[in-house]
Amino acid sequence: MGKTTHIAVVPSPGFSHLIPLLEFSKRLVQLHPDFHVTFIIPSLESPPSASKAYLENLPSNIESIFLPPITKQDLPNDANTAIQIQLTVTKSLPSLHHELKSLNSKSHLAALVVDPFASEVLSFAKELNTLSFIYFPSGASALSFCLHLPTLHEEISGEFRDVPEPIQLPGCVPLYGSDLPDPVQDRSNDSYKMFLQRTKTLLSVDGLLVNSFTEMEERAIKAITQKESGYPPVYPIGPITQIGSNSEETGSECLKWLDNQPPSSVLYVSFGSGGTLSQDQIDELAHGLELSGQKFLWVLRAPSNVTNAAYLGSANENPLDFLPKGFVERTKEQGFVIPSWAPQVSILSHGSVGGFLSHCGWNSTLESIQKGVPLIAWPLFAEQKMNAVFLTDGLKVALRPKVSEKGIVEGKEISKLVKSLMEGEEGKEICRRMMALRDASTNALNEDGSSTMTLSQVALKWKNNLNGI
């Protein structure tokens, strides 16, 4: 084996930011065992136990360093989740700088890879004489929006949501302004200024790794990789998920329940690792599931009026206490409710599961595609509305519920969509398209697949920088 190539990886705080970069690193060292990866992890308060547990089962050529945690007292009281994440990285920069210099002095770092929230860290790349890469954990359509935002910022003067016609992004399905990511919905807000600044950073790096594959997002990838775009090199290397990583428990109660259900009969309902619903919306969802008569497996969190309340930490209440009176008893033959967390990959892999009501987080979207499970797209925050439009209007592998004037998806609408997906003609068409996409995702990761070859190009570029730029 030749000389080892060292890279440093910096995720931003939050379990769902750490996982994509860890899975990427595992894929890298599996295909290229002569790489060594060091994770340098900022955290808000003490790191979550899930993160620590996950880091204990890594290959020997991936190691991790936890930086001294930032406390919530160091942050403004009214800071939203995105600002908390950003400020945690900013306040961790001195200790990050120290660790990077220390690593680089022992063995030259060929590349520094960060997620978009940690892009400030790339300011050290020049000093370290290393290549700067951003791992973009969403799809190529979301990346196209981010790369195009500085142009939109100049071209459109008011709020994007007030633009009457759909906005056309390079290589993407047309989008209404209200479906653009949360941070850009109020241009006077600090979140918007930070988001715009992060998108400008994307334009100045040595490369962008995107968790997608050419066969799924051909138009968007073509648009952002054209030489005349002026963008940095973009490398589609996905789908990279927890599938196949054996990191989940098996034999849990909900899997035993699934074993006793007919094939493709169960709708899996989950809003990701951070998504929460209001009490009113939990009531309507419960009503809709019961009314549909379809089998369901529902991962339930305690209610909150903030859609991403569970993102950086969850409440200690028992979620089942917030279900409508008598719901569990009435639906005991029809459904199974599991509090807070479930082994998602194992569930999506199960033969009894025939649909997934999802918040359209990109990890969940890719996992569903890899397992060929059709979707009901119920976006909550971040870029999830964009993903929902791509899945429903672009790929046509999802149904999206209509939201009432009160901002609630009503029980009748839920029931109608669930029945349509699970037993209607439209559901059968969606299932056929999803199966074709599943096969394409498998091919992309084969030995000679598009994403495997692209990752090899990146590895070669990094190996060529063993001694610095």
* Tally of contiguous helical segments: 16
What gross morphology would you assign? globular
Major sheet, described briefly? 7 strands, parallel
How many β-strands, per DSSP? 13
As a whole number of angstroms, the C-alpha radius of gyration is 22 Å
Average pLDDT, rounded to a whole number, is 94
Structural class: alpha/beta
The CATH topology of the largest domain comes to Rossmann fold
| Cα distance spanning the termini | 23 Å
SSE topology sketch:
Layout: E1 5-10, H1 15-31, E2 35-41, H2 49-55, E3 62-66, H3 81-106, E4 109-114, H4 125-128, E5 131-136, H5 140-155, H6 190-202, E6 207-210, H7 218-225, E7 234-236, H8 253-259, E8 266-270, H9 279-292, E9 295-300, H10 327-330, E10 335-339, H11 344-349, E11 353-358, H12 362-371, E12 375-377, H13 384-394, E13 398-399, H14 411-423, H15 425-444, H16 450-463
Parallel strand pairs: 1-2, 1-4, 2-3, 4-5, 5-6, 6-7, 8-9, 8-11, 9-10, 11-12, 12-13
Structure explained in plain terms:
The protein is α/β, with parallel strands linked by helices and 469 residues long. It has two domains: 5-238 and 445-463, Rossmann fold (3-Layer(aba) Sandwich); 253-442, Rossmann fold (3-Layer(aba) Sandwich). It is 41% helix and 14% strand. The chain has helices at 15-31, 49-55, 81-106, 125-128, 140-155, 190-202, 218-225, 253-259, 279-292, 327-330, 344-349, 362-371, 384-394, 411-423, 425-444, 450-463, and strands spanning 5-10, 35-41, 62-66, 109-114, 131-136, 207-210, 234-236, 266-270, 295-300, 335-339, 353-358, 375-377, 398-399. The strands form two sheets. The protein has a seven-stranded parallel beta sheet, with helices on both faces. A six-stranded parallel beta sheet has the order 10-9-8-11-12-13, with helices on both faces. Belongs to the UDP-glycosyltransferase family. GO terms for molecular function: UDP-glycosyltransferase activity.
